[in-house]
Amino acid sequence: MACGITPRHATSPPPCLQNITDSPTSPRLGSPAVSLARAWPGVVFPTETRFQLNSAPDGGKVLLTMAYNSLYDKSQYYDIVFERDVSQEINFVRQVFAHHMGRPLESVLELACGPGYHTVAFAEAGLRAIGLDLQSEMLNVARDKAGSRGVEASWLEADMTDFSLEEPVDAVVSMFDGITVLPTLDLLIANFQAVARNLKPGGLYILDHMHPRDQSPADYGTLYWSGERDGVFVELIWPVNRPEIDLQTSTITVEVELRVTKNGAQEVYRDTATERVFILPQEFEMLARLSGVFRPLAYYGNFLLDQPLDFSARSTQMIIVLQKTS
Asked: Which domains occur in the chain, in start order?
């Protein structure tokens, strides 16, 4: 999943939008409304414009904010959708490291950690755990989670292509398609080199990615997640448009919709994201070789040591294990 990068281009707002207002804040969230000037170049909107639709199924108001790079600002809603038990993933990372390195994993960095599910779980397992994310809102949620569970973890607000840890770690993990936020080869190589600089000699870089069967160049497909907490029901649809993969750059621009239903009303937030599409594991091998600092070590099809990457029903992920070479 990717943070929004590329704006939506149009000459006028969609015809379904009505009742344009210039309220400076959301009447429900109390947060600054998002300017639409970048989302629709050439269309003049009042500063801090919001669109309101009167079409909620239950008669409530629907606020549609056409945002630019704002999905991950909604950290409280993101957390409702994605909070889950990650113990199998934690056990897998520890087992992979012990299997290939011949010793226990002691320290780990999670890239694009979001609300810190894996970082907190690593810390609960007794590891020195660090979570890195570009969004301070996500890290605030992560800190709260660690505090509520009584565990100590470190948090770093930084770009995954250029960061420095106080001391190197045994392993770096990128979970849940986190690497796809880097759309260009230059950014990907910069990420590999930054990771290597912060790994101990021979350390591992473990990347969790969608299985190739679920991401066809001809049909991107649609992903849906939902969750509910304290009377708030949240849905995330990725994407709501029909995007086409750019075959020359291996990137795709998707329109994402976040629906929040609470107190009898629904809010809908839209964002635009550009992400890198990886189809085959050889792409990671080529990146590793281009970076000059990694070599491919193993591929897995699930969070199980005995599951190879193949097209069996049990193979649901594409997990790449790279080892630092210099």
From this structure: 18-69+216-276 (no CATH), 82-212+278-324 (3.40.50.150)
